[in-house]
Specification:
With 171 residues, this protein is mainly α. Helices cover 91% and strands 0% of the residues. The radius of gyration is 64 Å and the shape is rod-shaped.
Length: 171
């Protein structure tokens, strides 16, 4: 009778020996290869987890720093506005001071010009008096010629000036 798988004792013996050899080979390979690979994979897993934890911590710290810098930027805007406001106030104060100084200087210039004009009027009036005195003396000298001496002439000029008055010369 022919067997279907040709199962004989030799085949069973070879199969059992093969199974034992595979089992010992599996144990040897497990000890020599699988355990180091498992250990390497475990170390890699721990390293990746550590990197993820570090990255999460860095991300949280970066978020805190970002928030802090945004607050500082808001504070800088307020500070810049305060500085600009202070500069505007100083500019207004300086403007008022400069305008006041300009007004005072203009008033001094006008007062000086008025004084100079008044002095010029007095000088012109004095010159005009002297000229009129000279003309009147010349006319009187021609009219009276030799009869009147200098003393009488000066007396006549003084009387004439008194009659005309100082207000005539100052107006």
């Amino acid at each position: 009778m022919e067997r279907l798988f040709d199962l004989d004792m030799q085949l069973l013996h070879d199969t059992v020996l093969l199974a034992i050899a595979v089992f010992f080979l599996f144990l040897a390979m497990s000890y020599l290869l699988f355990n180091p690979v498992r250990q390497m994979l475990e170390d890699r897993k721990k390293k990746i987890q550590t990197d993820l934890d570090t990255a999460a911590g860095d991300k949280a710290e970066a978020a805190k720093l970002k928030e802090m810098y945004e607050e500082k930027l808001k504070g800088i805007d307020k500070e810049a506005e305060a500085i600009l406001s202070e500069a505007r106030q100083k500019a207004l104060h300086n403007e008022a001071r400069i305008v006041d100084e300009a007004k005072k200087e203009a008033a001094r210039i006008i007062a000086r010009a008025n004084e100079e004009a008044e002095l010029e009027k007095k000088r012109v009036a004095d010159d005009l008096k002297q000229e009129m005195i000279s003309v009147a003396a010349a006319m009187a000298a021609k009219v009276v010629s030799a009869n009147i001496d200098m003393k009488i002439q000066n007396q006549l000029v003084d009387e004439t000036l008194k009659e005309m008055g100082d207000s005539t010369w100052r107006s």
